[in-house]
Design a protein that fits this description.
The chain is α+β, with helices and mostly antiparallel strands and 205 residues long. Helices cover 31% and strands 31% of the residues.
């Protein structure tokens, strides 16, 4: 298998596992609702949310659960798929960027190094895939920062790029909103709805 095939198989399995975790392993359940060998041991925790006088406890969904389940599946692919790669987390970029102020984020040699959420390396420790994770459809500027990094670090064009996201739920408005935020980057964007249990945007048609 090519690197791209391995990574996209991991993405699809990650979505399958995170859906089961969301359905059966939330902290509010006080224990898993089912027993399954393929489930991750991660759970979605609870958090207190205060809105004026309304206080409630909700399930927190973040990119951290997505990233950790992806890493679990990455390790499984390495062990079982005869895939000789390595990985690093919070990996510094080679170029410098400016992400502050009112102007759009951009590559800027007078700026500072940024980080990728995850980088996959070959067996000579060369970077072969740059990956960013996101959750809950944040504001457009959060997407722009990640896309600038992913697009500017070219490594002679020999690197794969992935932007992987989860949302709690999605309708046609959500999908249209996401499409607007990732315009020009559709070829690297994968998004999964936890409530619908399906990929709502991906570069594979």
């Amino acid at each position: 298998m090519e690197h791209k095939e391995h990574i996209e198989a991991i993405i699809k399995r990650t979505f399958e596992i995170i859906k089961e975790v969301y359905d059966y392993q939330q902290e509010k359940f006080e224990g898993p609702k089912i027993s399954s060998d393929k489930l991750s041991r991660i759970i979605f925790p609870q958090k207190r949310q205060e809105d004026n006088d309304n206080k409630q406890t909700i399930t927190r969904v973040s990119e951290q659960e997505l990233k950790l389940i992806f890493i679990e599946q990455l390790n499984l692919e390495i062990c079982e798929g005869n895939w000789d790669v390595y990985y690093s987390v919070e990996t510094p970029t080679e170029k410098k960027y400016r992400f502050t102020g009112e102007k759009p984020p951009k590559q800027d040699d007078s700026g500072r190094s940024a980080n990728f959420d995850l980088v996959i390396h070959d067996n000579k420790f060369k970077r072969i895939a740059l990956i960013e994770f996101k959750a809950n459809n944040p504001k457009s500027s959060d997407y722009l920062k990640d896309f600038v990094k992913l697009n500017e670090e070219n490594y002679e064009g020999k690197v794969l790029r992935y932007f992987i996201e989860i949302v709690k739920n999605a309708d046609s408005g959500t999908s249209n909103n996401l499409q607007e935020k990732v315009k020009g980057n559709e070829g690297i964007f994968w998004c999964y709805s936890l409530e619908k249990g399906e990929i709502i945007n991906s570069p594979i048609k």
